[in-house]
Amino acid sequence: MIKKLAACVGEYKKFAIATPFIMLGEAVMDIVLPLIMANMIDYGIQAKDMGYTIRMGLLMILCTLFALICGAGGGITAAHAATGFAKNLRAKLFKKVQTFSFSNIDRFSTASLVTRLTTDVTNTQNAFQMLIRMAVRSPVMLIGAAIMAIRINPELSAIFLVVIPILGISLFLIMSKAHPRFEAMMEKYDALNNSVQENLSAIRVVKAFVREDYEDKKFKNSADNVRRAQLFAEKLVILNSPIMQLCMYGCILAVLWFGGNMVIGGTFEIGKLSSFISYVTQTLMSLMMLSMVIMMITVSLASMHRIVEVLDEEPDLKEDADPVMEVKDGSIEFNHVDFSYSGKTDNLILKDINLSIKSGETIGVIGGTGSAKSTLVQLIPRLYDIEGGEIKVGGVNVRKYDTEVLRNQVAMVLQKNVLFSGTIRDNLKWGNENATDEEILKACKAADAYEFIESFPYGLDTDLGQGGVNVSGGQKQRLCIARALLKRPKIIILDDSTSAVDTATDARIRAAFRKELDGTTTIIIAQRITSVQDADKVIVLDEGRIDAFDTPENLLKTNAIYREVYEQQQKGAQE
Predict the structure, then answer these.
(1) Residue 66: enclosing H or E segment and its boundaries?
(2) Would strands 545-550 and 537-542 be described as parallel, antiparallel, or unpaired?
(3) GO molecular function terms here (predicted)?
(4) Residues 6+ apart with CB under 8 A from 306
(5) pLDDT score recorded for residue 144
(6) Long-range contacts made by residues 266-272, C-beta under 8 angstroms, separation at least 24?
């Protein structure tokens, strides 16, 4: 785990390496200062040697300034190293997520991945920053101050033998109990992020159904769950500080008592007692800082595990060792295909699917809700892998293709239309980043989007806002169709993508498709019979099986499901 995370330091390694050495300078100065002070008191002030006192005072000032410079410099380099580490780690995580199949993402959930990319990385960043600042400084201070204290008075230093075991045992017990609590806390953060994500993405639905109070209550419950989980974890960790303070002040009181008696008895000089107290304080403060570092690592250990879980996740879709880099045509074959989202053959969504679609054909797909229409077409660009059988595109098994090559030749307009922040032009260029304005406008005309784009004051440069909030559902669908057309793919899949437009617009789009997509295999999933009545053939799906696959004319005569849908819609149109 550490090796994988450390690799993300990358080009900021020089800052990470420099920080401990700079902090070492501060630690050495902190160790030297009490010794200088003791000499100044014993050999300068008490001896009434003003020149020696001034020299030692100036030396203390110089050491203090050097320590200040080292402390500030170490803080700056640590910040550079930690923020750079976090940047690289987030980039690595995001790149890894891009390789995931839908089933990989389903395993983590979107909200959990967001938490891992934000909160978990921040926790790890904070632990890393504290580690590189204190990993050298605190041990050096601890060992150096302890050695100096022993040199000054070995008998008085025996107090450490009582204090250090108490601190070590306390720290071990707190660490062992805190880690699982912080893991549970991060799971509550996942649930909180999920609540926020759902509410913001569906804000129009929330307002339309006047469910603000319900969503507010749900969010408060999630936030309260985080609070309680955090309190449960933190109330154990915060015990570390009072235990450390108790030991430190108890140790200082013991030193003052026994050391003071030695001074009164004339066996111990007051300057040395003063420096001994400083070294005791430094020793215990170093122990406290080390315990804080360990506590921070303990807190972030849960986050580190969650991050590494993502980095270790193996994408379900494996690339072929020698992938095919060209899709010959848009022909599609399904040979005894079985599919399940769970990956188990006892819970199949699609069962024994057999299809043969020629390149350039227009195929309609109809079926009831839950008949797996969308699932069927998502297997063509290999968004999921199948449990049994074989799918071929262009005569080649989809597993043999380079995934990027295959998906570049299969354009999909999904049931849920997604547009991104930016202009209309920016969104359309997702289909072809090198598309000219002429090509863009041609695709917009084919998708019946040209007219409403021209009505906007800035045309193609109109800003759509987040998720395309500035356009209607039908306009969004047509922009997504235009975006798909710009790919000039060998296969285009329209998953109920004209449901938000009227029948006249739907007819114009289909007519444009016949003209613009000559030679392109077109698959149209639709609820309206009119959307598929011009298709070469229509697939009728029923509970994950193909009930029929024939021309619309023959299906009207031979298939009960197709005929029933046709008659119901015709009857509705007449009424």
Answers:
(1) helix 50-98
(2) antiparallel
(3) ABC-type oligopeptide transporter activity; ATP binding; ATP hydrolysis activity
(4) 112, 115, 116, 120, 186
(5) 84
(6) 268/153, 269/38, 269/42, 270/41, 270/42, 270/46, 271/37, 271/38, 271/39, 271/40, 271/41, 271/42, 271/43, 271/46, 272/38, 272/42, 272/152, 272/153
Task: Tell me the C-alpha distance between 25 and 523, whole Å.
Answer: 70
Calculate the average pLDDT of the chain: 83
Quick: pLDDT tens for 510-519.
777 777 777 7
CA gap 152, 302 in Å, rounded: 43
**Alpha-carbon separation of residue 220 from 140, 195, 198, 537 (angstroms):** 47, 10, 14, 52
Joined tokens for residue 149: 């204290």
CB atoms inside a 10 Å sphere around CB 491: 25
Name the 3-class secondary structure at 116. helix
Rounded Cα distance between 190 and 116, Å, is: 9
Q: pLDDT-derived band of residue 502, with 50, 70 and 90 as boundaries?
A: low
* CA–CA dist 468, 476 (Å, integer): 7
Residue 523 backbone dihedrals phi, psi, to 5 degrees: -115, 120
Q: Strands 491-495 and 521-525: what pairing?
A: parallel
The burial of 518, by beta-carbon neighbours within 10 Å (0-12 exposed, 13-18 middle, 19 or more buried), is given as exposed
Phi, psi (rounded to 5 degrees) for 236: -80, -45
Give the 3-state secondary structure of residue 323: coil
In whole angstroms, what is the distance from residue 359 CA to residue 351 CA? Answer: 24
Output the six-digit token pair for 550: 């024939």
Using DSSP, state whether 281 is helix, strand or coil.
helix
Residue 353 DSSP SS3: strand
Structure tokens at 125: 């960043």
- Look at the pTM and tell me if it is higher than 0.90: no
pLDDT band at 568 (very low <50, low <70, confident <90, very high): confident
Q: Does 289 have pLDDT greater than 70?
A: yes
Structure tokens at 409: 């030749």
Which of the pair, 261 or 355, is modelled with greater confidence?
A: 355
Contact 569, 532 (CB under 8 A): no
CA dihedral sign of residues 526, 531, 533, 537: negative
